[in-house]
Amino acid sequence: MGRPRTPLLDRERITTAALELVDAQGEFSVPQIARRLGVQTGSLYHHVDGRDGIVELLRERVTEAIDAGTLDLRPWDAAMAAWARSYRAAFAAHPRAIPLLMTNPVRAPRVLEHYERAVTLLLDAGFGTADVMPVIIALENMVLGSALDLAAPEAMWEIADVSATPRLAEALAALGDSRTDRSFDLALEGFLAHARRTLEARGSASG
């Protein structure tokens, strides 16, 4: 038999299979991917560097949906806000991947390029080197938490006895629609306000 026109295995197919498993069950194993693709487990190791390599392929795949061009916007806070929204949307599409990706160090070159651009943006805006990563990490914590919130049930609080928690019941009734979007907007506004104060304090100190 001749070789198939389309290879049974490549990194794209492996990534797609892994992401489908993660979306369905929050985890994957190399043998599961092999079974899904109809190949021997050992065949996968000719294309990827084990489980950690697949995790980085997943990180690259999810991150592809983030619009890195947002980091070219000016002023810096408009860029960070736009990046945060795009980042949130990308990970909200695959919320079950978040715990998996957060427990592995970031190694994927294309993902590291995003961080390089974000660091450059903040340094060019006048942030001190020691302030840059706390700002980026704080933004990520907010974004990923909100991405998980988007995947949560709309009704996260179930009150059987309103008389036991009347204030909570009243507040929930007043919440209305777009709970996650309103909460994200509030967190983003607070984050940017604090980042601006950090930058202003640095300018005052240097002046």
TrEMBL record:
It comes from the Bacteria. InterPro entries: HTH-type_TetR-like_transc_reg (IPR050109), HTH_TetR (IPR001647), Repressor_TetR_C (IPR004111). The keyword DNA-binding applies. Residues 8-66 form the HTH tetR-type domain. Keywords: DNA-binding, Transcription, Transcription regulation. It holds the Pfam family TetR_C_1. Residues 29-48 bind DNA. PANTHER family: HTH-TYPE TRANSCRIPTIONAL REGULATOR RUTR (PTHR30055), TRANSCRIPTIONAL REGULATORY PROTEIN (PTHR30055:SF151). This is TetR/AcrR family transcriptional regulator C-terminal domain-containing protein. It comes from Streptomyces osmaniensis.
